[in-house]
Specification:
Strand content: 25-35%
Structural class: alpha+beta
Number of helices: 2
Mean pLDDT: 92
Order of helices and strands: EEEHEEEEEH
Number of strands: 8
């Protein structure tokens, strides 16, 4: 099983294009999900000072939605920094479209070709988008 701390921001451009910035906390410089037993999820969050809004499980992943107001996001390493290949980092993915099926620029399909710990990024992002859509 894996743990996936994440948070999300939705924006709408003046032209009406919807984009979702989905930030994932990953290991090995942002290339792998973090292995974690279900009983250790709370301990992992405490050790990293992650405060979460919710947790849910789907497939092999325990999704942990971070509370951006309490968690010190600025203290985390970014995927774009130098010399982070062995560190846990925050990596941002941009999904264009109002929901998990919309792809107005024909680019979201490329997430099918990218995987984290052998799980397609598109599957992970769509799971998060479905969760966020329930709140709207």
């Amino acid at each position: 099983m894996f743990i996936l701390p994440w948070f999300h921001k939705k924006t709408v451009s003046q032209a009406g294009t919807v984009s979702h910035r989905i930030h994932l906390f990953l290991e090995k410089g942002g290339t792998q999900l973090i292995p974690c037993e279900p009983s250790a999820v709370n301990l992992f969050c405490e050790a990293n000072q992650f405060y979460f809004q919710e947790r849910f499980h789907e497939g092999q992943i325990e999704y942990v939605r971070l509370d951006k107001t309490k968690t010190e996001i600025d203290c985390l390493y970014s995927f774009h920094e130098e010399n982070v290949k062995d560190l846990e980092v925050l990596r941002t993915f941009l999904w264009i479209g109002a929901n998990e099926t919309e792809d107005p620029w024909n680019i979201n399909k490329y997430f099918n070709e990218l995987a984290l710990s052998n799980i397609p990024v598109s599957e992970i992002l769509k799971t998060i988008l479905r969760r966020v859509a329930k709140e709207e």
